[in-house]
Amino acid sequence: MEVLLIAVLVLVLLAVITVVRTLRIVPQARARNVERLGRYTKTLQPGLNFVIPYIDRVYPPIDLREQVVSFPPQPVITEDNLVVEVDTVLYLQVTDPRAAAYEIASYLQAVEQLTVTTLRNVVGSMDLEKTLTSRDTINSQLRGVLDDATGKWGIRVNRVEIKAIDPPRTIKDAMEKQMRAERDKRAAILGAEGQRQSQILTAEGDKQAAVLRAEGNRTARILKAEGEARAIDQVFQAVHRNDPDPKLLAYQYLQTLPQLAQGPNNTFFVIPSEVTAALSGISKAFTESLPRSPATLDAAPAAELTGQAADDAARAAKAAEDAVADAAEAEGIHKSTPTR
User: Fold this and answer.
1) Residue where one domain finishes, among candidates 167, 198, 222
2) CA–CA separation, 258 vs 273, rounded Å?
3) pLDDT tens digits, residue range 243-268?
4) Where in the sequence is the domain holding 9, given as residue range(s)?
5) Are residues 49 and 78 in the same domain?
């Protein structure tokens, strides 16, 4: 009885194991190769699959998603014999699980070695400056070579990116000095341009200010000249309208003579020949008895008029003597001062 129970349990366990080995569930974006008696039979697709237990051998799943593979920096010699370290990243995807498993032993290692050799060939044909500025060209060339070589392995290379290109430390220092010199040069040029623009704007402002100042001075002089001309015209009209006699004009002329020598820079002035005639006319005018009008005779007594006339004559004679003395003094100054 116990032997029968053990046999039943063994059969049940064997049946469970057989069912488990028969049913295989493959996740999405995965694939599993199946060998039957040591030969490739099929590839299990995502979902529920059936295999023959104990005869079919199911291999580990292969990831069909796009994979990101980063390789360590590789030393590469450029055309101008400089060693640079290039760090690359590959984006690849398995398109044929059978070829990826049976055409190459390790497709990741093969892709890495192929990338290194292709990178050395591409960068070795460029100098350092072109290498640093031609990343797109390097990426496209690498992708073309890798895609052609990995096609038979069931792998598609979607993208190749250059993460970093590190030149030697000495080259970095030289490049930094060059860039610093370029920046200093641009800064000096910009400073000179700014100073030039500032000077141009300042000169333009000074020019405009000078023009406006000249316009203002011209307008002021024109207005002043017009005012003086109008004043002279009014004086001239007033003089001619009142019809003054020559005696009054001669007296005014004598009053103007002392003002000619008041300036600090006036060392001499010219006395016209008409001064003597003017002085004689003024003296005669004030020493002679003035004619009396009928209104004056009617308004004041004769004795009072006679006294007033005598006082006027004395004052006129005193003014004439002072004028003659001033004229003589001015003439003496003129004779004693050398002509410049």
Assistant:
1) 167
2) 16
3) 666 656 566 666 666 665 565 555 55
4) 2-63
5) no
